[in-house]
Amino acid sequence: MILDLFAGPGGWSYALSLLGVRDIGLEWDEWACRTRAAAGQLTLRTDVARYPVQPFVGRTTGVIASPPCQAWSMAGKRLGLLDQPLVHQAVADLAAGRDTRETLLGACRDERSLLAAEPMRYLHALNTVGEPEWVVMEEVPDVAPLWKQYAVILRAWGFSVWCGILNAADYGVPQTRKRAILLASRTRPAEPPPPTHAQHGEPETLFGPGRAPWVSMAAALGWGATDRPVPTVCAGGGPGGGPEPFPSGSRKTLADARDRGTWQHPHRTRRTGSPAGTALARTWSLRTNSQANATVRRADEPAGTLFFGHRANECLWVAEPATTTADEDAPVPEAIRITAAEAGVLQTFPADYPWAGNKGQQFSQIGNAVPPRLAAHLLAPHFAHFGPDDFTLAA
Q: What is the pLDDT of residues 235-254, one digit of tens each?
């Protein structure tokens, strides 16, 4: 089996389903578990820190872990940074078969900090029988020093290991989401997947095709289409009738619409008192939080890192005034909250992914999830039937 610790709403699981395999997720949050159930994913609703490892020993091929990031994230108080020495101590102790978690937890400023050490408890027990074959872990960039400690231990156990920071935008995610990644394998050299996208597109050369430009929010959401629609998701209906599992768009269609000065949010172009069809703004931008230094990105760029705090949602679409003479008197629409479906698509979930819970619970799941497209790139090398020549997820 493939064991998915802190499985969340199913970013890793959805990516694995596209690769033709399934995992079993361990997750505590009620609403994430409900989302997973609605998506048809196998789940044990449990506390990862309390669940016994023995049922998995002798049965586990791969281990995935995305520990909760709230203690470390820049969106929170970041008490995990203050607790980092305690987490390092817990990892070292667990790797040696000593369980000192209860003592160390009492000294932590944030009880969630120590969850980043939990994967080592599972890995140590599995290593006694030469498992797993591979490990993939993901967290916010500040956890990179901890991943380096894991790497030293795993190398001593016979793994090839790579760890570093990857930008999700370099793998076709319409979001410049940077994450600390650890990749380990007993059967192949561990190395990061080659980037498929770049901030600026690259031309084809004698050595192969260049990287595509970063995917913009507008392209991912299907904005800017005029006479030809831009798809946002195909649930089994890609070009030629085949599956197209991730949001995609036509850059040419978007460019054509932008050149004519008409590309806008397709559902945000009319407000009370405005005539039908009036172009109220030339561009929309996404503001990713309510702070003075909030990241603001135009719709023709990738989003910044999506995160959602105590409010139901802290991301707003804001419009720039029209600049042409014909539209200079048109009112500028007020800021509009991003929808859960839009946020999910910007994380590369399908537009119809079955998010459970109220608005706040849905946004919390979305912000904490690993983008499935990034997950698929990280996982694909472990499946021999899915080689680089037919890596359709990179298209």
A: 222 322 233 343 333 333 33
